Structures
1.
Amino acid sequence: MTAAVAEALLEVDDLHTHFQLKNKLIRAVNGVSFAVRRGEILGIAGESGAGKSVTCMSILRLVPNPGRIVRGRILFTGQDLLTKSEKQIRELRGQTVSMVFEDPLNSLDPAFRVGDLIGEALTLHKGLSKREAWKSAGELLRLVGIPDPDRRLDNYPHELSGGMQQRVMIAIALSCDPALLIADNPTTALDVTIQIQILDLVKQLRDRLGMAVLWITHDLGVVAKLCDRVVIMYAGEVMEQGDVYGVLKHPRHPYTRRLIDALPKLGRPEQRLMPIDGRPPDPANLPAGCPFAPRCYKAQPACEERAVPLVETSDGRAVRCLFPED
Amino acid sequence: MSVANLQVKDTADAKTQPDVAAEQRMFRRPSEWRIFWEAFSQDRLAVGAAALIGLVCLVSMLAPFLSPYDPTVGDNSLRLAPIGTPSHWLGLDGQGRDILSRLLWGGRVSLAIALLPVAVSSIISVFLGLVAGFFGGKVDMIIMRTLDVFFAFPAVLLAVAIAGVLGPGMLNVMLSLTIVLIPYISRVAYMATVTVKNELFVDQARVSGARPLQILFHHILPNTLSPVIVYGSTLVGIMIVLGAGLSFLGLGITPPKPDWGIMCSDGRNFLSVAPHVSAVPGIMLILVAMSFNIVGDGLRDALDPKLRK
């Protein structure tokens, strides 16, 4: 990990985000650590409720009520975001770190034209006049591959197709030249042909602009296509991380293994899908040991006794398992 | 890979040439007002209704110059003369007063009583509803629970009570109607705010680094106006009637000064022999109230980008 730390743009260290409800404590994120290097695309994959989105919102310090970041550090270019003032963090949002949401239509304010929406961050952070902002907005639409961008500026969001809306979202996120783009499931609402266009676009933009991307998804296919490295999360913990090829080709954690087995495979229609039995643990009542142990085919009594540490290996991978595959 | 790739390349080439047409379009970009006006002017019904309201407002304001007779002095020899009587085209009422003149003078009172309270309380209510809905928690509690107290009283009773305490007079009637309306419109604005507040685009604005007040006024306010405009426009007609009710109880303007509501109620004794005494102001009332509803709907359609044609 030391090598990664040296070139890390964003380093999340032992992050705990909890939601205190009336009679129970939801532990959504439990000691998550990972690093995003400059210019890399890091995927965070896991099933719904694994704490992926809460981790993202924690990075921008926008955890919805009654969530609290209880413990941990979030280092961005070496500075801890959790100790910054609200004003400093607002400067950061949309400017150095920007975010794209899952549902493009609902993320775009229906009352404004595309040009106003893209220009908003520019007028906010760069102090551009409205006309200058519209001009830059046109450039940005061109950058994200929207044909006839100048005319599109006058459109309202609902007049665009889903793929275009997501491109507009990406244009908004890119407007202030961010160092890090966080994308929370941005392709789930799109059909696969548009999805692949967006993935290609993000890759290209990364190459051209040199930003780092943190891509949240529950689709391992997207991870394989897009990401350089991947973090597999389960029940608010990192189960495994490493380079995409290694993790997906030779998974070490039984959970990663089962996730991959659960995917349909091209060319082998006779093979039945293998679902993972059981369900994720209740985040208000997490087991003391490995959270996956109750569903794990390799589980031993030792797994349930106490927390399993995340063990790093020399090849830059890490796995949280007492009996990893090899 | 191919599609996005091609487009980026393709447009990157285009970028190198100075795009004169685009430059000009940027210069001549239609403003929000222009877009709104173009959408609104296509709605013929709404434009007609707005014109009618404008005309009624204009002639009411010019009543001192247009009115052919004194609205308070009657000619007993011609009591209850029907519509079409020479030199009294809309007839005379039970005390021989010229209905046209009373309609003109009464319009000043009725329109003021209908419009001002709705306008003023809408502004106050939007502010209260926005603040309560957006900040939530204690602020929400204090504002909305206080307004809930007003809901405990029937609106008309409350208006009577307030006007009674303040004493008779047109200004006091308007004040009491304003107070009565605030809880109702606030609730509409509050509900709209709470709905809009949880929309993803508000999170999007937050993620873009917008300050809370910028989010409130830039993103939430425009999206809460539609329901308030529509609701407010339906209230205008009700206010004319309610204001007339207060006058009838001796709390509004004092007879023999006319307003449309009083004119309607004056005519009720002669309904079987001279229906026009009530009908003429009644039709005016309906026309104006309906026009406000139509204009309200038209405004909503023209202000909401999704409803524009």
2.
Amino acid sequence: MSVDIEFLKTIPYFQGLGLAELEAIKRFVFEKSFDANEFIVEEGDPGEALYFVVSGVVKAFKTSAEGKEQILRLIRPGESFNDVPVFDSEPNVASAAAMGPVVLYGISKSDVGIILRDHPQVAANVVKVLAGRVRHFISLVEDLSFRNVLGRVAKLLLEYAENRTGPERPHLTQQDMAAMIGTAREMVGRSLKALEEKGAIRIDRHRIVLTDKRALRGTAGELL
Amino acid sequence: MAQMPEIIRELCNGCGLCITVCSCKGLVLIDNVAVVIETAECAYCTECEAVCPTGAIRCPYEIVVEEG
């Protein structure tokens, strides 16, 4: 395996770095592959490495004592995970699992320290990435606090249909959707039916087709 | 080929609940593991996923915006 410099350039942590700096960082990068549904890291374990998704999609999630899953975010190519335990030296705050076959680049915790020390631009990029992460979680708290389930489903559909980050846009089951918006699968099923009756979506076998984005935005509480 | 439910073999406990709710006979148990039989009758109702106690069945959706 050889680490692809062109791919490293697309990672937000490494934006603005020159070829020489990327070559220096490349030495610390290792590659790992996982099968669908395989655990990559488990909540509570020590944070040993920072990971970047090269191909496939990874879900970061928490599991309640009753086994209920809350997906915190889906991680697509170029995006990182396991950052928090690597930076604060506390245990992993969430588990991560492959949603399909995935390839990752990893950098060990000690090597992340060396990179941050030697390449200040990376530290500046890390701040920006983590600020974006805070925005994401504020939005999730807002959804859980202020939106009803129908509104959360409408918002999720809009976000996923509009997120055109390439071929890795994940396909979601009703269970995935429920775990992302903090509700039960049955509620997602009912909400999809209600949105279809409103004419906002059409369920076309395995495709959810957004037919009236304005109506969806209204339901999501984001009237433009 | 029609999109059919997906089975994660390692998670299937062979309980057969999915088969009892499948109205198109698109699922069978082979060696105590649920197996999907491709059939044009499958309406992708997702009932099999709903009743599976172990999360072994997935019915994923692509989410797209209508063109035009």
